[in-house]
Design goal:
With 150 residues, this protein is largely without helices or strands. It has two helices and no strands. It is rod-shaped, with a radius of gyration of 32 Å.
């Protein structure tokens, strides 16, 4: 038998290190995995494979944005992590992150597209199907005309 220090410790102290990672099985939460020997947060994922070794609620960050998958509303999108209003649009892309009924403002007028009667700001209410003459009689835009339809 080769009596290196590990073999000597095993023989003298009765220590066993099944995976040869330098930590005896009695103190190794992963006695059969030579790449793991510690689990600081007790989540069952070894520190070497745990993106958050001190947070028992997180262990993986699929998109590498620094927010654990369990807390990340968009775990596969590195540009998004949170959706404060729960509308399915990430806060970084949501013009109205605290209003679940709005997320975009196509014409930049501060009114969300869903509530904006003219979301392209062309002066004609969305869905207007009236006569085109009404537009001709109101060059400043139909919203500003007193009597847009002749």
């Amino acid at each position: 038998m080769n009596w290196d220090s590990a073999a000597w410790d095993d023989a003298v102290w009765g220590l066993v290190d099944s995976d040869d990672d330098g930590v005896d099985d009695a103190n190794d939460p992963f006695p059969d995995d030579p790449t793991e020997w510690e689990d600081s947060d007790g989540d069952g994922v070894g520190n070497n494979g745990d993106a958050f070794p001190d947070d028992a609620n997180e262990s993986k960050d699929s998109d590498g944005d620094g927010v654990g998958d369990n807390s990340d509303a968009f775990p596969n999108d590195p540009k998004e992590s949170y959706d404060s209003d729960g509308d399915g649009i990430g806060d970084n892309s949501d013009i109205f992150p605290d209003d679940s009924s709005e997320w975009s403002d196509s014409d930049g007028d501060g009114i969300g597209d869903n509530a904006d009667p003219d979301d392209d700001n062309d002066g004609i209410p969305d869905g207007y199907t009236g006569p085109i003459e009404a537009i001709k009689n109101c060059p400043q835009g139909i919203k500003k005309c007193r009597n847009p339809i002749p």
